[in-house]
Each structure stands twice: as structure tokens, then as C-alpha cells.
Specification:
By secondary structure, the chain is of the alpha+beta class. It folds into 2 domains: 52 residues, Ribonuclease HI, Chain A; 121 residues, Nucleotidyltransferase, domain 5 (2-Layer Sandwich), CATH 3.30.420. Helices cover 31% and strands 27% of the residues. The protein contains 7 helices and 10 strands. A 5-stranded mixed beta sheet has the order 8-7-6-9-10, covered by helices on one side. A 3-stranded antiparallel beta sheet has the order 2-1-3, with helices on both faces. The protein has a two-stranded antiparallel sheet with strand order 4-5. Strand 1 and strand 2 form a beta hairpin. About 6% of the residues have low confidence.
């Protein structure tokens, strides 16, 4: 079983109420829908406190081709629906390696499920399994209208196509993982669902609530 999620701290320089918040859910209330909101996550409270007293340009601007590009909230994409919705995400050590995935209720941050780590997997496979796991859970419990958010367009396509397209070879290490993939595909082929599956717009909304916080 995977360990607990690492604590992160969120600095809001410009937004509803500037300050330091200890959860994405609290930070989210002060930046979503606020034009020009400036915010960023930090791995320690000390770093967050130092950053809050500093110029946000040191932290939320990055250089690209000799120019500075702001990482700011873009209101043009709208806002996510945070009630009656689930977020799924996967984490993988490298392009391929130990992989795990989980799902959380967006409104409360409560973890709904977590699976792994599985040896020799990929992030897209984890995202795919996370979506199907959420679909199966919601169908079992009668949540027909609950939205599922993912930040992987590839996984969304695999779910629509009811098959995966991966270059990951099957081997002794990931044989169990491929069994789960086969089960997920079988579930999609033999079940219908009404739950919308939507893309989490990371650039506009920040990290998906199910993020493992290891970036």
C-alpha cells in the first residue's frame, strides 16, 4: 500500500484572500474565477512563508525562448464542477516504473480508492485504470450523474475506444498489471455508464485534486 500524500502548502499572492493555505481545496476557493490570480504550491511551510514575502515573479514566471511567461489562471476555460465529482490521477516513477493511481472526491478531498504500486507500469495506464475503477465504483453505488475528471487525454481516448495503445511490453514484472488492464477493458465492453468524463485543465485550475504531489 502506498504511503500518505506529502503535505504541500499553497501561497496565494493575488486572489480572493492572499495568504498561505495547507490544502488545494482551501487555496482553490481564492484563485478560481479570479482574473490574474497568482499562486503556487511549496513542499514546506518555511518555503511558502519565504515566498509569500517575496515577489511572485520569482516563482510563477518561467523563461522560455528568452521570454518570461506567466503561469496564471485563465478564466476563458471556465471552472470545474467541484460538487458531485471525482478526480483520478496516477503517479509513475519515470517513463515506466512502479505506478499507482487513486481517486478522490473533489469537494471534500476524501480519498475514494488507491491502488498500487504496480511494478513496471506507465502513467497513462494508471490514468486509464483510475477512470475505469471510478466508473465501476459509481455504477455499483448508483451515482449515474457524478463527473469524473482526469488530466490525461490519452486515457480518455482509451476509455472511449475500449482498448489501450501502449508500447509497454508485457513481462514477468507487470503481468498482474496487464491482468487488471484486461479486466478493465472487459468491464467497458460489458457495461454502460452515464457519467461524464472530463479533462481537468491543469494550466487554468492547478494540479488535479487527486495529484500525488511528487512533481
Amino acid at each position: 500500500m502506498a504511503g500518505s500524500k506529502k503535505q504541500k502548502y499553497y501561497v496565494v499572492w493575488s486572489g480572493g484572500t492572499p495568504g498561505i493555505y495547507s490544502s488545494w481545496a482551501d487555496c482553490q476557493k481564492h484563485v478560481q474565477g479570479v482574473k490574474g490570480a497568482k499562486y503556487k504550491s511549496f513542499d514546506s511551510k518555511a518555503d511558502a512563508e519565504l515566498a509569500f514575502k517575496s515577489d511572485p515573479a520569482k516563482y510563477i514566471f518561467k523563461k522560455k525562448d528568452g521570454k518570461t511567461t506567466p503561469k496564471a489562471y485563465d478564466p476563458s476555460v471556465g471552472l470545474p464542477i467541484t460538487n458531485n465529482s471525482i478526480a483520478v490521477d496516477a503517479a509513475c516513477s519515470g517513463a515506466r516504473g512502479p505506478m499507482e493511481y487513486r481517486g478522490v472526491w473533489i469537494e471534500t478531498g476524501q480519498q475514494l480508492f488507491i491502488k498500487g504500486p504496480y511494478e513496471d507500469g506507465t502513467n497513462n495506464i494508471g490514468e486509464f485504470l483510475g477512470i475505469v475503477h471510478a466508473l465501476a465504483y459509481l455504477k455499483q453505488h448508483g451515482y449515474d450523474s457524478t463527473i469524473i475528471y482526469t488530466d490525461s487525454r490519452t486515457a480518455m481516448k482509451w476509455v472511449r475506444d475500449k482498448k489501450i495503445k501502449t508500447t509497454l511490453p508485457k513481462n514477468d514484472k507487470n503481468a498482474v498489471l496487464f491482468e487488471y488492464i484486461d479486466r478493465a477493458i472487459n468491464w467497458l465492453e460489458n457495461n454502460t455508464y452515464m457519467n461524464p468524463i472530463r479533462k481537468w485543465e491543469t494550466k487554468a485550475w492547478g494540479e488535479i485534486p487527486a495529484d500525488f504531489g511528487r512533481k
